[in-house]
What we know:
The protein is mainly alpha-helical. It has 8 helices and 4 strands; from the N terminus they run ααβββααβαααα.
Amino acid sequence: MTGRKSMGRTRTERLRIAVNALPRDARTAMLDGVQEETIVAGAYVAGGAGVCPMLAVHRRGVRTDANRFARAWDQFCGVAQGQSRVVTDRELTTLIATLQASLLADEHVDLRAAVAEHRALRRERHERDAVNLGAVRTEHQALARDRRAREAADTGSDWLHESATAPVSPGGSRRRAAREAARRAALRDRAPDLVPG
């Protein structure tokens, strides 16, 4: 008896997986069809006895590939290949409950909304990080300028940085002013008493 229960659970699980794999419109049409028509297992149609769940779907205008479902349905009902029969109330009730649970689960998980929310969060984080990166870069550049100025003052090469802050003469350029400052500094080092101030 234990082995039989185990097989029943396996068959039910296979049926649930096959139902969940069907498109939503096919599951909706199947739910309508199995509640309105006589349902059979083991055949697409069994004479005048009834129809399989997939024929009920097709009669409602939904077309889909259902090989996986058909195999799982026939295995769930325990129908051997080449045989067909009307399903029991328990089998029909299980199929209806499985379809309803599958459709209900779809309503609770709106994948498009979840993906849109995820993308919005990523975009927001990227924009926030970009702003933070700009502030960090600006702060880093200011610290680097201060460090270079301190090092230049400590080594005595601060005169090299005077050109960037030196006023530009009306007729010249910063580069010419820097060259002139460098020439005077070099002269001052060689002959301090010849170069004025």
